[in-house]
Design a protein that fits this description.
globular, mainly alpha, single chain
Length: 67
């Protein structure tokens, strides 16, 4: 289990990386992007890679291709 400080830091990082997506994307549920980003980071992806992974995941959700 992750300690509180580490989780808080990951959430801060996630919020930072979500901001550019939020400003350019159609309406979406932030928690979907956060979940994709956090999962990618926990699987060893860099912040940039995780942002791209989350954006691709959201493209799937928004187009109806991802459940």
């Amino acid at each position: 289990m992750r300690d509180i400080a580490s989780l808080a830091e990951l959430l801060r990082e996630t919020a930072e990386h979500h901001d550019p997506y939020e400003k350019s994307a159609p309406h979406h549920d932030w928690w979907d992007w956060y979940a994709a980003y956090i999962t990618a980071r926990e699987n060893g992806r860099t912040p940039g890679e995780a942002s791209a992974d989350a954006a691709r995941y959201m493209d799937g959700i928004l187009s109806g291709q991802t459940a």
